[in-house]
Amino acid sequence: MDAGSSGTRVHVYRWLNTSRARYDAKNEIQLNQLPQLHTKPGYSKKIKPGVSSFADRITDIGPEHLQSLLDHALSIVPENQVKDTPFFLMATAGVRLLEATKQKALINEICSYTKTHSDFYLSNCQLHVQVISGETEGLYGWIAANYLLKGFKTLDQETSGQRNHTYGFLDMGGASAQIAFEPNATETEKHANDLNLIRLRTLNGKMSEYKVFTATWLGFGVNQARQRYVKSLMDESYTKDAHELLDPCLPSGLKTSIDGIPVSDTHQGSALVGTGLFDECLRKTYPLLDKDAPCVDQPCLLHGQHVPVIDWNINQFVGVSEYWYTLHAVFETVSKSEKYNFNLYQQLVRDFCSEEWEDIISNVQEKKWGYDFDVKTAQGLCFKASWLMSVLHDGIGVPRNSLSELRPGFNDPTILTLYGNDARSLDPFQPINKIGNMEVSWTVGKMLLYAAGQIPPSDSQGLPVGIGPNNGEPGSFQEAGSNFEVIPEFKDEDSWTEAAEELAEKAHSRSTHGIILFLLFFLIIGYIFRKRDRRLRISRIVRRTRRSSSPPRGNRGFFCASSKYFGPLSVINYDKILDDEEVSADFELGDAEIDDNEHSDSSRRSRIGRTSGRATSKANGIKMDPTNHYFDGSSAGPRVRIEIN
Q: Which CATH architecture group holds 222-292+330-407+416-425?
């Protein structure tokens, strides 16, 4: 669970255990990969408000907040796997703003309620339910972005000594902002003590390490920045009429309270009156970057925070959360581009903010900017856009101009697929939201560490998976929280079990419309077969059709349909297993008369499958008739193992 400042979102991830993943790997390249996490759109759910709003009534957080999220997760995780499924709740900036005593009480209540009302694996409250620092959140996000964008090195690159440079990660929520990136070689050596060590493990047990810088700015999220901005307007008005404060970051004609609630012209008390001057809005948000703050450890970016020099010749950043929603999603239907283009975006925002508020409301109702663009989004867009651009270009220093050609090393197929033909001119920054069906969230990074930590190291001296200071400070390395065990031998039967679970899950997740159609089908069939003479007539027609033109039995029934899920069943190998070291003798399968109407093909073969791949035959000399698809399963004799390829 990602417990953010504005709400909590539950994510459910699944991955193969190490033995199965190694069994499925076809070559050393696949064994040199990280565990493959999987999720689906329905596996995630978000509710509001954030957990920090329960700080003064912690006993309500369970029934009013956590329970619906737990119920959602329990509806997805198979019942027999709940006790083995680890539960994590990581609280971020919203809870970090609380005083320490309230933080502790809130976290303890969350852990206690979860342990009481679910059977998820939760061995240690301090490990599974905690407030994470902004730096840790940034590192998790960096892992997630590079995992999904294939930024981590591959076996071929290891062998040749070359690899793509990893992607930098930018995140901004309501209360804080984070940056995480791998500096170039010169900066890495110069600022070695400022870096964090990330240690991962691939399926073959080999270790890979990355040295990453991360920083966080509490109070630099969009909501906290807005509060600081309004305070600056009030500070400027001390010698003026404080009744109405002119706000260039609100559309012209919009009037709100200090808290941002729209009010009428008859409102009594201080109010913000929009002027819709976007360039003035940019000028007023710039001081919020606090670039003039003392920098104790050069170089610095924002608020006196030390950050190694970013090499824009090799560093390419992706931005999530507000970077995606504000810089891309709000104008997605208008811009018709997957790329972030500074000049185009600035012009779109300038045009939007210059419109009268009444016209904006009308355009929202007409869905000019898309179905997800509502009045609340319109009200806050001018400030958010100004703040995001200020942080991105004036704060972090992302170049405003596009690059004319794709940089060497950034020709990954994932990127090309993500941005299409526009990938040929990738900028140093792009906002992203999902890769495939997986959201680029820091939660992916946390669970990838956990999954990688379950893989046994290739040598007995293997170091633990996790994150920590690059200087090796004792006791400060945060292990992934998972333990590896001796890997049991993977059995073929396990694949049948997993396939059956997959089918059951699909059946469980059927839509309401599908269930209604299913019931309607059976009602129609019941109506047709309600009379005995009609049933007999249809039965005779079916018998005649089957005798004259039925396909080979091996291609009918359940096993024909199931081959789409389990693979073709055309090859069945029989291996003789002799008891008591008997010398192989001749055996003969007893003749069996087959009545087309006595047993269906699917029922007979299903009976074979339920015996765990073993059946018996009659002794007295073996004679395999290739035209005989059946044998008498009730006869005594040596066992026959059936392998289905």
A: 2-Layer Sandwich (3.30)
